[in-house]
Amino acid sequence: MPELPDVEAFRGILASCAQGRRIRRTEVYDAGVLHGVSAGRLRRELTGRRFAEPERRGKWLLARTDGPTVLLHFGMTGELVCATPAEPVHAHDRVVFTVTGGRQLRYRDQRKLQGLWLVDEAGLDRMLRDQGPDAATLTRQGLGAVLAGRRGSLKSVLMDQSALAGLGNLLVDEILWRARLHPARRAGALSADEHGRLYTELRRTLRSAVRAGRVPPRGSWLTGRRDDPGASCPRCGTALCRKRLAGRGTVWCPDCQPDGTAGGET
DNA sequence: GCATATGTTATGAA
DNA sequence: TTTCATAACATATG
Questions:
Q1: Which pTM value belongs to this model?
Q2: What SS3 state is found at A112?
Q3: Which has the least CB within 10 A, A7, A8, A19, A85?
Q4: How many CB atoms lie within 10 A of CB A130?
Q5: Quick count: other Cβ atoms within 10 Å of Cβ A99?
Q6: Would you say residue A231 has pLDDT above 70?
Q7: Nearest protein residue, CA measured to C1' of C7
Q8: Catalytic residue positions of A, numbered
Q9: Which candidate, A26, A115, A117, places its Cα nearest to that of A75?
Q10: Pairing assessment for the beta strands A78-83 and A23-28 based on DSSP bridges
Q11: Quick one: CA dihedral A9, A114, A127, A28, positive or negative?
């Protein structure tokens, strides 16, 4: 689930569920999601604290309090759920904060690839030091700086959180498909027109996805088709290509996204 | 058993 | 130095 739009939605959930409320209880059902902090210390340091306005940076969610900050990363399967204490604990609820006002904020994650960190300001800086500029506030010039001099593929550079923070596998494929750019194109070798298309579609795609709270699996989006058997391009109907690129399953339309070499490929 | 899955990081090789 | 693929992490599904 979690790319920038999903984490943005989790930020909204945290804000409406817990901002301004005090933490009454902290229950850790699986300490395997805690990083650099024990369940006991998490409970001691957070109980009685009040959640402040949360922030998002790339795929990280900063749950600020009037004390330390809880840093959350959702890996591939994590989510943040607002519930009531009456609702039974879900099998994948790993940490549950009960706040004043009868609500619970639940960190739910099946695979536990990432988790929670408890940090002060210095720790926060250390953790997020290597993040690139946030994709949601990227300027055209900012994109130029991200791509300039990069010899790697568009796919790998746009996925690289230290180059540009927030985009994941689905979003990058979606944006490149809309911009009609082949994922294996060299990032630093775009024409002015291609650069403009990439920037426009990056902004447009992110705006829609953030509004939807996810990368919407609509039929008019690549994301809505990519997992269909015999998937075809929503724009031209050509059979989609699929290959491992930059370590991830990558989907593109060979007709809309020419690879720049004569003859194309499959 | 095999391959796949929206993420990150360490490692070794070009 | 940069970039790539790969394995690892933990779990579920087809």
A1: 0.95
A2: coil
A3: A85
A4: 10
A5: 21
A6: yes
A7: A247
A8: 2-3, 59, 248
A9: A115
A10: unpaired
A11: positive
Q: How confident is the model at residue A103 (pLDDT cuts 50, 70, 90)?
A: very high
A3-12 per-position pLDDT tens digit:
999 999 999 9
Cβ < 7 Å from nucleic strand C = A 32, 91, 110-113, 149-153, 156-157, 188, 244-247
Distances (CA, A) of A24 to A56, A94, A199: 24, 17, 45
Taking residues A224-239, what's their average pLDDT?
Answer: 92
**Residue spans of alpha helices (H) in A161-229:** 169-178, 192-212
A176 pLDDT higher than 60 = yes
- Reported as a pLDDT band with limits 50, 70 and 90, residue A264 is very low
Task: Encode A24-47: b = buried (16+ Cβ within 10 Å), e = exposed.
Answer: bebbbbeeebbeebeeeebeebbe
Closest nucleotide to the alpha carbon of A215, via C1' = B6
Give residue A43's identity as a one-letter amino acid code. R
